[in-house]
Amino acid sequence: MSCESVERRAALVAALQEKGAIRSERVAAAVAAVPRHLFAPEASLAAAYADDIVVTKRDPRGAATSSVSAPWLQALMLEQAGIEPGMRCLEIGSGGYNAALMAELAGPDGCVTSIDIDADIVARARRHLAAAGTKRVRVVVGDAEAGVPEDAPFDRIVVTVGAWDVPPAWVAQLTMTGRIVVPLLLHGHTRTAAFDRAGDTLVSRSHELCGFVAMQGLGARPDRVVPLGPDVELRFDDNVPVEADGVRAALRGPRAERWSGITVDPQEPFDGLQLWLATQATSFGQLCSTRTDAARALVDPATPPRTPAVVDGGSLAYHALRRVDPATGRHEFGAYGHGPAAVPLAERMVELIQAWDREHRNGRPPVICVQPAGTPVDRLRPGRVLRKRHTVVTVDWR
């Protein structure tokens, strides 16, 4: 193994520790031990050890269907998982590298099963694991909706694809004291959440903003896409009613503006606000746009390519930012509205922004719970209810 790759791994560990993605000596040791470049042979050594994704497969449209995730996110999820020596682990979505890290953490008395629906990806992962000399990892082809019952139960499950729902098999194959880390979609907003099992309920212990390639197979849930113009579209992950022609026409008409008086500096993350809007606003979607001139002529969203939005028939409002202090770069939160209901929609979004600032900006993050879809209403955990195919998700901001 080259001295350069060892040095680059050490530098990567140091960078991830500085960012706060690596918080424990065990995860630091795993990242230092596993040669990431062997799992991304198409990338240069510098690219393999950069804190960025390496796309390994694309569909015919050019969209990524498999990748080696960014190191900061892999480290964060491993910290969330808390894999201990001797544990049995399941990885959903195979790339090889993350499974090797999990095997390093589980140690000689533990084991890892990794499942992927794509036979090419499975073959690739097996090759790279062999090249890295990684033991105790079994990579199988299959639809992860059913888990891997022959290797269950698992102490830890780590999902490395965006999941709209949590299939019953994942919970059933988790030990009663087990933990699952899953990038869960909540109205188009994805959080990597670490859930501890409590009977038939999953209770979050932490969650962070993230992004992943989408789930394939039975668990796939494509967004409903409403094109609005060049490089601009609305996306919904549930059946929100929208008058598409009305919204298209409204975007070409006058714009209402409402501002909250709530400001943010350039270095301050506000994904907590985005989660708040996604779980509190009604008729919620994501306004997706590029930074092209054609897109800018129609919309001016706070966070392209995905910005919180709400609709009401042929009306639309979306999250906006404006600079209020050129010297510091400080911005104010607000909302832009279009259509007959532009003003009330924008005002409602501003009210939610002000409520978040007043009640939750500096408070604890919400608790997310996942329960079976048939759970009686009086047994649901408190919070805003999001109904999915297999589960009911509650988001409790109290």
From TrEMBL:
Subcellular location: Cytoplasm
Pfam families noted in UniProt: PCMT
Record carries keyword S-adenosyl-L-methionine: yes
Keywords recorded for this protein, A-Z: Cytoplasm, Methyltransferase, S-adenosyl-L-methionine, Transferase
GO cellular component: cytoplasm
Any one GO molecular function term: protein-L-isoaspartate (D-aspartate) O-methyltransferase activity
Keyword GTP-binding attributed: no
Any Gene Ontology biological process: methylation
InterPro entries, per the entry: Methyltran_FxLD (IPR027573), PCMT (IPR000682), SAM-dependent_MTases_sf (IPR029063)
This enzyme's EC code(s): 2.1.1.77
Domain of life: Bacteria
Cross-referenced PANTHER family: PROTEIN-L-ISOASPARTATE O-METHYLTRANSFERASE (PTHR11579), PROTEIN-L-ISOASPARTATE(D-ASPARTATE) O-METHYLTRANSFERASE (PTHR11579:SF0)
Family: Belongs to the methyltransferase superfamily. L-isoaspartyl/D-aspartyl protein methyltransferase family.
Protein name: Protein-L-isoaspartate O-methyltransferase
